[in-house]
Amino acid sequence: MSSLSERGESFATATVVQTTGSTTGRIGFKILISHEGSVLEGNLGGGCSESVVVEQALEAIKEGKPRTMSVLLEEEERGGIGANCGGSMEIYIEPFIQKDQLVVFGGGGERSIAGPLVQFAKMLNFDVAVVDPGASPQMYPEADRVIPEFPDKAKDQLKFGRNTFVVIVTKHKYDEPALRAVLGLDVSYIGLVSSFHRASALFKELAEKEGAREDDLRKIHVPIGLDIGAQSYEEIALSIVAEIIKTQRGGSGRSISEYKGVYSGNQVAPSSQLPPSKRAQEG
């Protein structure tokens, strides 16, 4: 479990807490389930019961809440899972959810993109760390940690995993060292605030002089953010957070009304058939 936590991956355990009648598993039997649905360790006494439990474990991870389930070791015709032991087991499933982490390599405090970016991320319950050589906690009051170090030194003070999202917004002062610090890490997102032309030149230099792999460079989101016509620091920060959520949750980034709207299909619903909230908007 410790290795999963260090990598920032969510997981669940499933433990037999009660048995009735003849069962393949015994009280205390346990399995460790990854967020992808793989049984990493342990056993519950048989593959049939484990496959059913894994489904419930994935739901528990998704909801972030523990649950108890009953596994009936009978034939399917009798409401069981296809086994013929005749007994039943109570399984306690406990999810372990890793909190998402945003690491901002930033500069400028609240009067920059970094400032509102930290604020938005905290609203979304991210654990936020700011790496900024000239920073103080007062410059980023909402941040969980402010590390006033250069990227290469700060890297050792942070844990990067699949729950980590990285944004580099250094006003080009530390773009290169920040990229060197995070390139190749197994994180969910790396974004760089930069123009296309500046980033292209920087990537070329990293590839030629530092030996950076093209596959790693291709994973960097640059220019950063969703296209919402953002202009102010706050708007740009919002577009970055929106792209992070898109990466995190999935989605097209399109306006939902374009493909699920009342007038997006062949049939047009009269106003009288719309939900009250929609009628209110039209009124």
Model description:
This protein is α/β, with parallel strands linked by helices. It folds into two domains: 2-96, no CATH class; 101-249, 3-Layer(aba) Sandwich (Rossmann fold). It has ten helices and eleven strands. It has helices at residues 2-6, 47-63, 114-123, 151-154, 175-182, 196-210, 214-218, 233-249, 256-260, 276-282; strands at residues 11-20, 30-34, 39-42, 67-72, 88-96, 101-106, 127-131, 145-147, 164-169, 189-192, 220-221. Helix 3 (114-123) packs across helix 8. The radius of gyration is 25 Å and the shape is elongated.
Task: Give a nutshell description of this structure.
The protein has 283 residues and is an alpha/beta fold. The protein has ten helices and eleven strands. The chain folds into two domains: 2-96, no CATH class; 101-249, 3-Layer(aba) Sandwich (Rossmann fold).
What's the arrangement of secondary structure elements?
Layout: H1 2-6, E1 11-20, E2 30-34, E3 39-42, H2 47-63, E4 67-72, E5 88-96, E6 101-106, H3 114-123, E7 127-131, E8 145-147, H4 151-154, E9 164-169, H5 175-182, E10 189-192, H6 196-210, H7 214-218, E11 220-221, H8 233-249, H9 256-260, H10 276-282
Parallel strand pairs: 6-7, 6-9, 7-8, 9-10, 10-11
Antiparallel strand pairs: 1-2, 1-5, 2-3, 4-5
Helix pairs in contact: 3-8
Instruction: Using the coordinates shown, work out and report the CATH topology of the largest domain.
Output: Rossmann fold
Per CATH, which architecture of the largest domain? 3-Layer(aba) Sandwich
The major pleated sheet works out as: 6 strands, parallel
Q: What is the CATH superfamily classification of the largest domain? A: NAD(P)-binding Rossmann-like Domain
Q: Provide the domain count.
A: 2
Q: Which secondary-structure class do the elements indicate?
A: alpha/beta
Query: Spans of 5+ residues with little confidence (pLDDT < 50)?
Result: 266-283
CATH class of the largest domain: Alpha Beta
Give the overall shape, derived from the CA principal axes.
Answer: elongated
Strand content: 15-25%
User: What's the total count of β strands?
Assistant: 11
Mean pLDDT equals 84
Following the backbone from N to C, one meets helices and strands in this order, namely HEEEHEEEHEEHEHEHHEHHH
